[in-house]
Amino acid sequence: xxxxMHFFVRGDNQFDLGKWVNxxxxxxxxxxxxTNNRPLWRPGFFDHVLRNDESYAQKWEYxxxxxxxxxxxxxxxEWRYQGKIVTIDxx
Length: 91
Prior knowledge:
This protein has helices spanning 17-32, 53-69. It is mainly alpha-helical. The longest helix is centred in the last third of the chain and has 17 residues, at 53-69.
């Protein structure tokens, strides 16, 4: 999507999603030359906990169809920037 991104992220009990997101934003900002006068990101982020495989599949399909809902493509398969579904190890 041209105005936002979706990430499916998994971490252990010590994983701090906020720190991870801030680090990702900082790295992308540096790489793209964002500045305080020309910021790249809005403050904060929205997260949603996926509790089971069904929820994962539903959210993945929602993300896949975003470009269709935005009128950027006619079918999700046409969006060249989509990722792929990956099994998340339940370890």
